[in-house]
Amino acid sequence: MALRKGGGNWVDGDRFFDREIELEALEERARDGMHTLLTAQRRMGKTSLVREHLRRLKQRGMFESVFVDLESALDPADAVAEIGVQAKGTLGAWQRVKDVFANVLHHADRVDELAIADIKVKLRAGIDAGNWQQRGDAVLAALAENDRPVVLAMDELPILVNRMLKGNQEVITTEGRQITDEFLSWLRKNGQAHPGKLCMIVSGSVGLEPILEQAGLSAQANIFSAYDLKPWSREVAISCLGQLAEGYDVDLSRGVREDMCGRLRCCIPHHVQMFFDKMHEHLRHEGRREAWASDVDRVFRREMLGVRGQLDLQHYESRLRTVLGKSGCSMALELLTLTAVAGRLDEEALGLYRSHWGGGGETERVGVSSVENVLHVLQHDGYLERADGGYRFVSGLVEDWWRDRYGRNFEPVFGQRPYGGGCRR
Predict the structure, then answer these.
(1) Phi and psi at residue 94, in whole multiples of 5°?
(2) Distance from C-alpha of 303 to C-alpha of 393, rounded to nearest angstrom
(3) Of the candidates 307, 298, 265, which has an alpha carbon nearest to the alpha carbon of residue 279?
(4) Residue 38: beta bridge partners?
């Protein structure tokens, strides 16, 4: 079966491409009972990889699996309720979960007929700040008592942790740190309590480690072993474009596919598929099936960097605000824009920024963020990488988008141009 477009959502089965090495590694970790923190920059396909991993494990009869999306969860009680309701697909565990919540699941014989959202509301009604750990222990024990081991995947756990730490504030609060400490301690305790029966995978669109480092809680995640998901190699990306072209009767020569990957520079799976989608639509409007070399630059400039393409890329900015808060995000925007305009962020510029943001009243304006803290987040989450004694963008697409969006008439906050006054285009 020919490869089909994946759209903007996660994919599995016939729409899933490559990653066999990574799937083998995750399966080995599951067999060994290792808890995994899946790390990668944005749009690398973490959710798709986890979904496909769980699908294959269940298909082979090796494990049961539970996938939980915690992006909308507000607190530990929400997380426990979400895990409980998603256990519905594991029959033995679901019966035990219903027993745990018998006091709130009235008419339990009809619960299975309710929609997932309604069941979640009922479970949440039985959990509060005083009993969430007890309820959570019982839910995870119900999973661990299953005949086959259970892999519990928690997507967007970093978003929940960040939300608990800061609440409605831009900075970490004392209360938020205490709640987060309790929640992570609870996860660690349960991860150690069911060896060989319950294995956890954590992933998210932002990095967990920088968030915990800001809060001084890094040790609470030491139960998880990090696994870094890398971009596709250029050859894999070229192969993917070829299979997509075959599936949609499009003629993309090897040279065209190489040029497309060269414009991206970093072959992030979503960006590769996004480029194909834009090229396919362009050719459809042109009334031809063969792509020419000139089409690559045209589609990249007009579509990938155009208004519709920008709607997808704006998520890079919004996630920075989520992790760093208003002041830290302002610092990140400044550093990224200078990097995009100059082509490189060097030590001279960083020294000027440290002086500007590190003295007197400026410290109060910036808040708790520092240049080092922001740089750590930008590297960990895949915006920048070290190169030639400084930093540069990892992705050519994100770099070009950032320059087009923020680079016009840009002047550094310290009032001078440390890069010789020239804009690299």
Answers:
(1) -65, -35
(2) 21
(3) 298
(4) 227
